[in-house]
Design goal:
Layout (H helix, E strand, L loop, with lengths): L2 E3 L2 E3 L9 H7 L18 E4 L2 E4 L12 E3 L12 H9 L8 H8 L4 H4 L2 H4 L11 H7 L40 H6 L17 E7 L5 E7 L1 H4 L4 E5 L30 E2 L5 E7 L2 H10 L1 E6 L6 H4 L13 H4 L8 E9 L2 H6 L3 E9 L11 E6 L5 E5 L4 H12 L6 E4 L16 H11 L3 E4 L2 H7 L6 E9 L5 E13 L5 H8 L2 H4 L6 E9 L13 H19 L3 H8 L25 H21 L9 E13 L8 E7 L5 E5 L8 H12 L7 E5 L15 H29 L6 E4 L2 E4 L2 E4 H11 L4 E6 L6 E13 L5 E11 L6 H20 L31 E4 L22 H13 L10 H10 L6
Helix pairs in contact: 2-6, 13-14, 18-19, 18-25, 21-22, 22-23, 24-25
């Protein structure tokens, strides 16, 4: 019997054992996504005879004779389904990769199910939003006003300007340009390419190392080549021998060259050994299993503390430290910093209270819902074309050119819509493999990582061990801060120097203290590599420092927020961390940290009063309650150059086009570019077409990381749009004879005195005059400003069971002039949710043999709908002198203060300082069972 798909009978027959997800995608239904292939995430949800199912675990043969509806068939001839309209209206998505599955589930809900979303959406995961916008969309709550239960702000912070934003311009809650495509399943992510566009497509799978440290002696390809469908096998003998780093930065020498495409030595369980290319995924997997490899086992080392001991195995000991830019390869030290400002010895001598403790943060996985994937092929001119799930397509192109000895003009890299990043896609982890195979075979080649490969063979957040000693006097001032930091970069040093240096930067610089000392090392181990992760080292260091700040305040008998107010930097203060002089290009473009502290303090006070008034403050004799807060500062742009080139042009129909290099992966930069251009051109974001993330479009773009999408690429877009506005007005002046000073851009036209000239007419006139009605904009990422976030929690802890309840969560952010309040609020809520997971339960666990044991989603707990409280979000009122139209960055930083704020609230409630993340319920239970106030 045939399967009916979206009202039409399919003539295709499922293969034996094929799941419904892959079958539907083969029929062109690309809205059905893969996030796990284990029934854990819900991205693949479809309806079978009206019932939502996870199609990745639903056998396709079971759908024979049944009606299957995908997101492409949810709408009718009359229009969108109500849930699609609500997700558009409420902007219930960011990257959008999970959205189709979320809507397919919600479309079946009745009123009773909508009233219990934590239960009924438990099978659908989102990594971007924090779920608040999804809840509002499902329930039809699309009001842009963000009302808080805690009541009106009374902090005394300056009120926002009363001027109403113009529709589609700066300050308006413009929906994402891709909204319609996302909610209908038409948005095209990396692998959403019709088969007819890639004839002869091959599939690549990897044989990965079962050993933590070994030398490859031989690889027998013959058994694999005998597998039907296997086309080719690539080993270290077939790959470039050049060393490089998978990490991607504007200056590639910022990272150590310690990696090969395929190496003769494997340094962690899961490392690539060989690539098998076949006609199908199944054949490639069978070929990989058939390979015979002989290894010489080498001694591994699994912790950085062991790795730096004398006589420890040197993981990259054969490399030239100078040439590869590894600080001490024989000692397993990738990078290090040793610095002292003032004298910590004198600072501790002047202290009335000293806090000493060792803080530890764990490995955390990005869990972007779209796994790493790439396709490579040669076009009709022989150019290498790569389509990749990347945050940095221009840097990927540069790396491929360098690795394979190609001319830049012969390589093009495109990123479609990307299903989440969080720093994990600031790497080259798939593109080199498909390029290698496509160049050799002259056929399209595709690779898609499984969720298990994401956990075991990509990157994680760097684990930090921080030995901290801090002192304060009775007057409430810091006298000394001393930190001994060891970071675990895993088997390779991608991002190791940057994460270490950045972590030791703003986390220290936000506090005035004459005596600071830092000794930090980033260390190799035979474990899964670490890499870039939201916060880039700051979240780990801020956890330790902000926890210590609370301990000092308690030790001298001062309110922790008052202690912060006394010691945090103010506008004009030097921001010092490991050097005696501040970074010369970092300035206070605006300053709102004091407002953020006031906003959080006032919100917590109002929340406490609300609970008291409602009679909810007494939970019973076993419950204790407490409050805690933490602050953070971040430079708005990464150091050492971050470049963007954009082009804005007037189109023949009177609309505008913006060409940018920045990728869209839920960071919202597409909307920001449209709003900035619209504001400069007196237009509306609805009349701006943004074309992006294609290395053929513009000259260069460093990429979407370090929160640079708004403050770097956005600044380039604004410059181009302002220049284009002048050119348009100049043509209008020449047409009318009116002085240029009297010509003014308005919606769709230029007013020249009492005459109005339509933009279409100006386009035609410019064409006749040979005037290029397009302008280019460039920005180099300097000078830089600083952004601030303060988070506060009220919690209740059950002293008998260790249960933790978050009663109130509030964050205040200094984002400068907020380009799109709804979108920025969503970024903050998503950052809070991800940080809560990292604080309470997320951990990539590695056993005593170096094997990752949490390698599927049901073993690695990311926040689900029921796990995330609704957070109150407030914005300081500032106008940044360095950002575009006063804006600052605000995508990484909301993550950073959450863990210490929650740890401080638990400390305030229980008297126990938790210094090791995650703070799981069993840890709380065991600590409270011992009823001790000692640190654990």
């Amino acid at each position: 019997m045939a399967i009916e798909i979206n009202g039409a009978s399919s003539q295709a027959t499922p293969r034996p054992g094929q799941c419904l997800r892959t079958f539907l995608r083969e029929q062109g239904n690309f809205g059905v996504k893969k996030g796990c292939d284990g029934g854990d995430c819900g991205a693949c949800t479809v309806h079978v005879d009206g019932t939502p199912v996870h199609s990745c675990i639903y056998p396709a043969v079971r759908a024979e004779g049944k009606a299957v509806t995908t997101i492409e068939g949810l709408a009718t001839a009359e229009g969108l389904h109500p849930v699609q309209e609500q997700f558009m209206e409420g902007q219930g998505f960011q990257c959008g990769f999970c959205t189709a599955g979320m809507m397919m589930t919600a479309a079946t809900f009745d009123d009773e199910q909508r009233a219990n979303l934590p239960r009924n959406l438990k099978g659908n995961l989102c990594r971007c939003t924090g779920y608040r916008s999804i809840a509002d969309a499902v329930c039809g709550h699309s009001n842009d006003a963000h009302k808080h239960d805690a009541g009106t702000d009374g902090s005394g912070a300056p009120a926002p300007a009363a001027v109403e934003p113009k529709a589609g311009q700066l300050g308006d809650n413009v929906p994402a340009p891709a909204s319609q495509a996302v909610v209908t399943g038409a948005a095209r992510y990396t692998l959403d390419v019709p088969a007819e566009q890639l004839p002869g497509l091959l599939h690549l799978k990897l044989l990965r190392s079962p050993h933590a440290h070994a030398r490859i002696l031989s690889i027998n390809k013959a058994p694999a080549l005998a597998v039907p469908g296997v086309v080719a096998i690539f080993t270290h003998e077939d790959a470039p021998q050049q060393l490089f780093s998978t990490a991607q930065h504007e200056i590639y020498t910022d990272d150590p060259d310690d990696t090969r495409v395929l190496d003769t030595v494997v340094r962690f369980i899961g490392q690539r050994v060989a690539a098998v290319v076949a006609e199908s995924v199944g054949a490639a997997e069978a070929g990989a299993r058939a390979l015979e490899v002989e290894y010489e086992l080498l001694e591994p080392v699994f912790t950085p503390q062991e790795a730096i001991l004398p006589g420890a195995p040197a993981i990259h000991g054969e490399k030239d430290g100078v040439q590869s830019r590894i600080a001490r390869p024989l000692d397993n030290v990738v990078a290090e910093v040793h610095a002292e400002l003032g004298s910590v010895e004198e600072g501790f001598a002047a202290a009335d209270f000293i806090h000493e403790h060792t803080y530890q943060t764990q490995r955390v996985q990005h869990v972007a819902m779209e796994t790493h994937a790439s396709i490579a092929w040669l076009d009709e001119d022989g150019r290498l074309m790569v389509r990749s799930s990347s945050q940095v397509p221009f840097l990927v192109k540069r790396t491929l050119v360098r690795l394979f000895g190609l001319q830049p003009e012969n390589v093009r890299v495109v990123a479609g819509r990307v299903g989440g990043g969080f720093g994990g896609k600031q790497e080259v982890l798939t593109e080199d493999l498909v390029a290698l195979a496509a160049l050799a075979l002259k056929r399209p080649v595709q690779v898609e990582f499984t969720r298990t490969e994401q956990f075991t063979a990509t990157t994680t957040r760097h684990p930090f061990t921080i030995k901290l000693k801090a002192g304060a006097n009775r007057d409430g001032y810091l006298t000394a801060l001393q930190l001994d930091v060891v970071t675990n970069t895993g088997a390779y040093g991608n991002h190791a120097p940057g994460v270490m240096f950045h972590g030791c930067g703003e986390s220290l610089a936000v506090y005035k203290c004459a005596n600071k000392k830092v000794d930090a090392q980033s260390v190799y181990t035979n474990t899964v590599p670490a890499g870039a992760f939201r916060g880039y080292g700051l979240s780990q260091m801020i956890f330790a420092i902000e926890s210590a700040i609370d301990e000092l305040a308690v030790g001298i008998g001062m309110d922790p927020l008052e202690f912060r107010l006394k010691n945090m930097v103010r506008s004009g203060d030097h921001m010092l961390s490991t050097t005696p002089e501040p970074e010369e290009d970092v300035h206070y473009g605006s300053y709102g940290l004091d407002q953020c502290v006031a906003l959080v303090r006032d919100a917590l006070d109002r929340g406490k009063e609300r609970y008291r008034a409602a009679g909810l403050d007494d939970l019973g004799p076993e419950w204790v309650t407490g409050e805690g807060a933490a602050l953070s500062m971040i430079d708005t742009v990464p150091p050492r150059g971050h470049f963007a080139h954009t082009r804005v042009s007037l189109e023949a129909d009177g609309r505008f086009a913006v060409d940018v290099g920045t990728a869209e992966f839920g960071n919202g930069t597409t909307t920001v570019h449209a709003q900035l251009a619209a504001t400069a051109l007196a237009s509306s974001a609805y009349k701006i077409q943004v074309r992006q993330s294609d290395t053929d479009l513009v000259e260069h773009d460093t990429g979407a990381f370090g929160s640079a999408g708004t403050v770097v690429a956005g600044k380039a877009t604004l410059a181009a749009a302002l220049e284009l506005a002048t050119r348009i007005q100049t043509v209008a002046a020449s047409l009318t004879g009116v002085p240029l000073a009297d010509c003014r851009l308005v919606e769709g036209a230029v007013e020249c005195g009492d005459r109005s000239v339509l933009l279409k007419e100006i386009y035609d006139a410019g064409t006749l005059q040979g005037v290029r009605l397009a302008a280019d904009g460039n920005w180099g990422g300097t000078p830089r400003s600083v952004a601030f976030n303060v988070h506060g929690f009220r919690v209740a802890v059950n002293t008998g069971t260790g249960e933790l309840r978050i009663l109130q969560s509030v964050q205040a952010a200094d984002a400068g002039v907020v380009v799109n309040p709804r979108q920025c609020r969503g970024q903050i809520e998503g950052g809070i949710a991800q940080a809560l997971g990292a604080t309470l339960y997320e951990e990539v666990k590695v056993d005593d043999h170096g094997q990752v044991t949490t390698d599927i989603l049901r073993q690695y707990h990311i926040p689900s709908f029921a796990d995330v409280p609704r957070s109150e979000v407030y914005f300081a009122t500032t106008n940044d002198s360095t950002g575009p139209l006063g804006a600052k960055s605000m995508s990484e930083s909301p993550f950073n203060p959450v863990a210490p704020a929650l740890a401080n609230a638990i400390r305030n409630a229980t008297g126990v300082r938790f210094g090791h993340l995650p703070i799981a319920r069993d840890k709380i239970y065991l600590a409270l069972r011992d009823r001790t106030t000692a640190s654990v």
